[in-house]
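Input chain follows. Return structure tokens only.
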Amino acid sequence: MTRATAVRAVLAVAVLLASVVITLTMSPRLGLDLQGGTRIVLQAHDSDTVTADRETTDRTLEVLRQRIDSLGVSEPTLTRSGEDRIIVELPDVQDPRQAAEVIGRTAQLSFHAVEGPGTGKPETGEPPAGDSETEGADGRKKPPASGTGPGELTLADEQGRSLALGPSRLSGAGVDDATAAFDAQGGAGWSVSLTFRKDAGQDWKKLTGEAACHPAGDDRRRVAIVLDEKVISSPQVDPSVGCRVGLPSGTTQITGSFSADEARDLALLIKGGALPVPVEIVEQRTVGPTLGAAAIEASAQAALIGAAATALFITVVYRLFGALAAVALGAYGVISYAALVALGVTLTLPGLAGFVLAIGMAVDANVLVFERAREECADRPKRTLRSALTTGFQKAWSAVADSNATTLIAAGLLFFLGSGPVKGFGVTLAIGVVASMFSALVIARALTEIAANRRFVSDYRGVNGIGRPGAVRAWLVRKDPRLFRRPLRWLVVSAALVAVAVAGIVVRGIDLGVEFTGGRLVEYSTSRPVDVETARDTLAAAGFKDAEVTTAGDGDLSVRTGKLDNDGEHALRSALAEEGGETKKVRDELIGPSLGDELRRNALIALGVAVAVQLAYLAVRFRWTFAVASVVAMVHDVILVVGAFAWLGRPVDGIFLAALLTVIGYSVNDSVVVFDRVRELWGANRKTPLDTIARRAVLQTVPRTVNTGMGALFILAALAVLGGDSLADFAIALLIGIVVGTWSSVFTAVPGALALERSAKAPPPAPGKGKGTARGKARTVRRDPLDNGARV
């Protein structure tokens, strides 16, 4: 064993031990789409007096935190996103009506003198926060800039009678404490007791003293307590209170027809304080705990089945070395999982799919190395197995680095341009790429080098798996098909496929998910079977004529509507319960129209940036003709995947966007491997026609492309079958993408490069360029460890 091998082995053991310890002692952090709960995204808006910036949004967040803590939700999470958005995550909350009501209330509390009966129509609706008077630290209010004179504000009291109110004399900021209490002896029911701060208590005394100057029964003897432009209580001042004397105590009581929940909510709103700026719910997602558990179970089954199939496949193809790569694949799973847990990454449903998918893609580097080693053994049959393996790792490094770099670019775009759970997919994909390189270049290399030093493995080349060329390579070499004698015909075929895809987009249209259009999508499970037509008629009779009803999962119903608030969703669920019995909400997505437009715009930006970044990277690493041809093939793949979903009638949503950006990375990955070999062969044979070079490069890399694709296909097929509706569309998009990506890397990218090179004036690449050496200088070939250098 050489020193380098020993270092790799020690490093592999150390990382594996640390990963095992982390796996056994730490638990993953699950997103709400896996553990169940509600996620609400709030958009802060400017008011007439306050701008929704970073500072005011942070203050709004703290007020919301106090409110949510008072609700008793276990382990809520509130974070600011950007300058003016707040993300609220409420684990285990399945009915978000109360939470959304408490969170969304501006809670502007004010106390007014009643000027008399109102003469105009009472004002209704909730004003934006900040339209009321400016609050001082002691709770005193100043009139707003627009002015609110006596009698200008007309509101309905508890009985619906109009009252003319004077300017606000006291605000909620002057309230020191608010508690809900039940008056069992007096029979008044639930009420809210207020305790004022010292200076605010004096204002309260003055306000009630002025009201006491009017006779009993006169409206002007009342004091109106207003919450968000709604009179919640307007009691008469007791006849025992003298004029200009007022109520001396620093407390008062808000009475009304409150339920226990209403009284508690009102108390916590007043105690928490008013929101500095108004907020709007632009996104609300609720996932039932059963759906998350089912997704975890399905993903685990898909991972086990897909990984077992992948391990069996590479063992059959590469025998002993394939079995060692399978061991490294298992180590990759442990390392990547431990990295996710140790870094505190929130594991979302798309992230879970990315983790499973990365298992199938982790064999890519091993396949590249083993195919290179097979070539070395075929070219120089007498060289030692260890020497061929070492050369295979050296020559495969360039393709491994470039292909993984393109995948990391796609992962980075997913993280920075994606939204919500899609960001989790980008993180897990990036961690998977790094872990797969470690498992291939450190763990698998250490195992195979140790095995290559054994005489039995070295002598019996049919056992090791790389001593003889594979059956596919041998057949291709024997047939030697002239693939690119007429390259334009392949471009015509690709153009025809694109035309079919575009026809699907035009004729069938793209079924944009609620995430991109705005609206609400709710999935229900019922105790009794309900067919789609019955459900549609039931909802139409209940007033939901525009609701779109489809089947989902195992007999579940999916209902998609336009704008629908939480009370409307409750009414919709009650209507379904009349036909289906007990009706449970499995999944709920509410997207505001402004956010839908933003997400749709960001999706297009993400695709455009992906194309530009990949083009820039490839232009630096390769000739411009190769870069353009690779990007054309990538766009070809994107159009075919979108067109296939249009023909199939599948929804296009955020998870589909994650799959599409992954397809972009995979497509460029395949093209990079082919063009890396073209560059190498062309540099070594500069006088050979380029179409001949391209044919040889394709025939040499086809085994790698097929073997790598098979690993991913096993995983994706398992996800498509076992993943349910949540992961099926993701798996189908990637299955289509891998198939068309394999096709385009050979029959679109290469013919496109040949066509572009006809007009290009750049000379062939210099010998040795692109093999991982600096500035194209030839690398010094390492001597075989068993070669003492003597020559006769």
